[in-house]
Amino acid sequence: MILPQNPMGRTLDALDLIAERHKALSSNIANMNTPNYRRKDVSFSQYLGGYGDPLETNLARKMGPSPITIDETSSERIDPAKELSEMQKNAVLYSIATRRMTSLITQMRSVINMGNS
How big is the chain by its Cα radius of gyration, in Å? Predict the structure, then answer.
């Protein structure tokens, strides 16, 4: 995987992963009564752990296993409360990433406006 060197590229990657994780979690809830359905999840650590930035490193440590993988080891039923809790954590990460992107855009606007003075 190519690692973007700029903060905006890294933030966009984080937003993409957050969106993919949300899809996987919502699929788990939608299919919790489907026979033989296996839980899906997304691993931030595989994609963001290599950046070395404290935000991405901390995010990778907290978010857990698997890049859109199916949990083949578990045959237990999907716990909707756990899935909703994970969706809430994901929503917090989305909020953090969008704030970071907003901050980056604000910084770029400031630089552009200084150049126009």
Answer: 17
How is 6-41 classified by DSSP, letter by letter?
SHHHHHHHHHHHHHHHHHHHHHHHHTTTSTT---EE
Give SS3 for 73.
coil
Per-position pLDDT tens, the chain of length 117:
444 467 887 788 788 889 888 998 999 999 999 988 888 887 666 665 555 555 555 555 554 444 455 555 566 788 999 999 999 999 999 999 999 999 999 998 998 888 776
Contact 42, 22 (CB under 8 A): no
Bridge partners of residue 69, in order along the sequence: 41
Helix (H) or strand (E) holding 69: strand 69-70
Domain boundaries, the chain: 7-115
